[in-house]
Design a protein that fits this description.
The protein is mostly helical. Helices cover about 65% and strands about 5% of the residues.
Length: about 300
């Protein structure tokens, strides 16, 4: 026990309730390969629900792009694909739970991915996820503004014409340089605040501030390795977006599982890991269908 004095009041505080900041470790580029290998093992062990979780993700991106442009998504296909890196850490929270369960020898199934919603830090995850969504929308709006300032408001005539204009004209090269430079700044912000934030919140039930602070410390400790990781993530997401974002059904779960293992390598393990709250069994009624399928499922 420890004494904590506030004003004239003295409180007894349990020492084990005080959660010091976890230590962060140095990692090398070879560790990134190990993280991807372990992530692939997780994906092979539980591929069905990983794909189920991520098939909706590219669809949302396509719908969002249609909403942003209203007439053509062609000029924003590349920014949209690269921008998935901004939302990826939040989109993979269910995958972190699956990797955690496999690591501890617990059952891992599609329904267990939804157990992340029972975490005491789920609200914090949503808050940080919302911040990443705002960053993503800001990036899309910025990319659109860069395209309009370079080529005007006229919609792209078609894929061959658009590719030719971008790769063979001075305006196209300007678009590439300015767009990639701006996108790099957005990606750097996302990487710094979310490199290990979501796994940390799931593993330690940390607050948003503690998670983001630890993520910043990880990046500061490993600037080169984390920069390489960021480029690897962006490259895999762009490749997974071809064709028609279908490859993301494999890339997203791979990166999600790998991110969990990278977190394990770079942040010290909690000697007293918090226990995930038990599921509350509940009665189901016919009127609850199909909502009852997604809650309170018995193992």
């Amino acid at each position: 026990m420890a004494l904590s004095t506030t004003g004239n009041a003295t409180e007894l505080v349990r020492i084990d309730d005080i959660s010091p900041a976890p230590r962060v470790y140095s990692v090398t580029p070879s560790d990134l390969g190990d993280a991807l290998r372990l992530g692939w093992e997780d994906f092979k062990a539980v591929p069905s629900h990983a794909i189920m979780l991520c098939l909706i993700y590219p669809v949302i991106g396509i719908v969002l792009a249609r909403t942003v442009l209203g007439y053509s998504i062609l000029p924003l296909l590349f920014p949209l694909a690269a921008g998935f890196a901004l939302l990826g850490p939040f989109a993979a929270i269910g995958l972190y739970e699956l990797s955690r369960r496999r690591e501890t020898g617990e059952d891992a199934s599609a329904w267990h991915a939804l157990d992340v919603t029972r975490s005491p830090s789920f609200g914090a995850m949503l808050a940080l996820g919302l911040a990443l969504l705002v960053l993503f929308l800001t990036w899309i709006a910025t990319a659109q503004a860069i395209y309009v300032s370079t080529f005007g408001n006229a919609p792209a005539a078609g894929i061959p014409s658009f590719v030719s204009e971008v790769l063979t004209t001075s305006q196209g090269w300007q678009l590439i340089v300015v767009g990639c430079g701006t996108g790099l700044m957005f990606a750097l912000v996302a990487l710094c605040v979310s490199a290990v934030s979501f796994p940390l919140m799931l593993d330690r039930h940390a607050s948003v501030m503690d998670a983001v602070t630890t993520s910043l410390r990880v990046v500061a400790r490993n600037p080169v390795t984390m920069a390489i990781w960021g480029f690897m993530v962006a490259a895999l997401l762009v490749l997974g977006s071809l064709p028609f974002f279908l490859g993301l059904a494999v890339v997203i779960p791979l990166l999600g599982h790998a991110s969990w293992h990278l977190y394990r390598m770079v942040v010290e393990r909690n000697p007293n890991p918090p226990v995930m709250p038990e599921r509350n069994p509940m009665k189901r009624h016919a009127a609850d269908f199909p909502v009852s399928l997604f809650r309170g499922r018995e193992d």
